[in-house]
Amino acid sequence: MIDFRSDTVTRPTSAMRHAMSVADVGDDVYGDDPTVNELEQWAAKRHGFESALFCSSGTQANLLSLMAHCERGDEYLCGQQAHNYKFEGGGAAVLGSIQPQPIENEKDGTICFNKLAAAIKPDDFHFARTRLLSLENTINGKVLPLAYLAKAREFADKHDLKLHLDGARVYNAAAALDVDITEISQHFDSMTICLSKGLGAPIGSLVLGDKAFIEKTRRWRKVLGGGMRQAGILAAAAKIALTEHTKRLSDDHDNAKYLAEQLNQIDGFSVNIQHVETNMLFAKVEEKINQDQLVKSLKEQGILLTGGQPMRLVTHLDITRQDIDTFIKALKLAIA
Ligand SMILES: *Cc1c(COP(=O)(O)O)cnc(C)c1O
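A: This is the predicted complex of the input protein with pyridoxal-5'-phosphate.
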């Protein structure tokens, strides 16, 4: 299968499978899993935080972070397009009694500081207490500029807010900017990382923050039923994702640009190459193309796409240059 639907579809490599099979394990709820402990300690240090928590998914990592930063009746500021507002089932409101205050994202994925400032509620019992600004990087494949992150830190300090990064794909941002991950993480009180997207682990996300914050997330993780037992089996693959697979993300970015160029050669498809910053591209597909039929016919040939307007295509560990050529050839035939 050549699967362009998401970078979550990657399969664990044989090195991961091997590491999983020989991992030392224990009961992580007791704090007894040496592989989880090692991953958490290593990850905290690597990203410039005091402490880390390994958990099951990016959604859980974000929810734990929101619940650790905010109490019942507090609110968080975020983008209208933020994953932790729009795509996580309203978890912070449902399970944390935390009110989201979304603000329209600008075209480049940033949120305007004037609009954010206007949304901060006065200290008055009529209002929810504004506690947190949550950013996302990358957001829909776009990279937030480092200067914007520095300004966000100043803004948060000025308004006495905590600053969280949904960094599901933060390593893609670091690769696109060609900077060490700490150039990004240094600005934040907390950060999450998905290990099961472009980094290729089968399962798992990290929450990073100071010690007191991570202890709160550990408590909420248990409350939410997310305490795992011999999770070292997963942490072993996660460690390889972080040590071996971060450097190759620029290959995915190059492949996404290549894919965009190829699609632009095809009648009925257009991609703005300028907007292809990482491993994700959005193609405008003309009405004359029957997307349902196209998706079905390509699926029969082992090529998976998600239809849509625009159509999102994602490159990853399991997509090579040759796979892209195979896809483009099949696409040309299908359209003809
Ligand atoms: C995928 C994603 C998440 C959630 O991760 P899951 O592991 O799918 O729960 C959170 N934030 C962003 C930006 C994502 O892309």
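The mean pLDDT is 98. The first strand starts at residue 2 and ends at 3.
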